[in-house]
Amino acid sequence: MRIRLSRNARLVRFPASDAVQLEGRLTPAERDRAVVLCHPHPLYGGSMLTPVIMTAEQAFQDAGYTTLAFNFRGVGGSEGSHDEGRAEVADVAGALDFLQEALGGIPSTQVVAGYSFGSMVGGRLAATDPRVSGYLAIAPPLNRYDFAFLRTASCRIAVIAGSRDDFCDPDRLERLITALLAPPWVRLLDTDHFFQGTLEDLAAACRDAVRWLHGETTRT
Q1: Dihedral pair phi/psi, residue 143, rounded to 5°
Q2: What's the predicted TM-score (pTM) here?
């Protein structure tokens, strides 16, 4: 699959909520819908250039969303150091603050999307920040992190996972789904944690998830 970066994309710098300076990739579009994209584990090569993140980013852009992918602290040109998901929550909060300022207010549809480690960090913020109306978890690593924080989340939740994902046990995923306040949108793909050779399928799933998060009806 060929991933296309918009010609409108530009590199930006903004502070995390604890003032650590981060770098990101902002692609402006509609002001009433926006998404923050959170990349996978930095210690295993994760960054805002990860193909899965860029695939999701393109799906949101195709739906008219203003997108902000960024590097967590300690990655690329972002200052600070890796904190195993604790301080990184402040990075997501800073990204939301930056988008709010750039768009002149809180978008009516504000989504946080994350892949693997990024789904855990982004989910922690999405579950507690009233600005977030939707959350997309791609390959949530339920075998490694406790996602119980999602049980009290009031935003719309979408999940894309692989049926052969060694980091996301199907039984744990089912237990999480049934524990949520409202039924989420879920798509299981015949793939592993890294979506090897299945980015086209992931792109289609992301497009469906984006429509559902925006309130449009789509099949699971």
Answers
A1: -75, -20
A2: 0.96
